[in-house]
Write a structure and sequence with these properties.
This protein is mostly helical. It has helices at 2-20, 22-30, 33-54, 59-84. The longest helix is centred in the last third of the chain and has 26 residues, at 59-84. 7% of the residues are buried. The mean pLDDT is 88.
Length: 89
């Protein structure tokens, strides 16, 4: 039960970090959705390889995945916000 609460707190922290940190915002605004998803898949794959080779717990893969999903969801949120305003994507 405590793991679920901690994972939920980590998810909320990731959302706040992605929304507030300017380096991540610049990265999100600089690249297209496809490239951000591709980079996310690459980072998750590297995390899996790192965890398997170093025999680290599965929780590291879950944390990396949650952070990457936060970045991808922020990009989609920005894209849909621009679509609603009628801007070209």
């Amino acid at each position: 039960m405590i793991y679920i609460i901690l994972l939920a707190a980590y998810f909320i922290a990731c959302q706040v970090i992605v929304f507030k940190v300017t380096r991540i915002r610049k990265f999100i605004n600089q690249y297209s959705v496809g490239k951000i998803v591709l980079y996310g898949i690459i980072v998750i794959g590297l995390g899996v390889i790192l965890c398997v080779t170093l025999k680290v717990s599965w929780i590291l893969i879950a944390l990396i995945t949650v952070f990457e999903c936060s970045i991808i969801s922020e990009k989609y949120r920005l894209v849909f916000k621009n679509m609603e305003k009628g801007r070209k994507i």
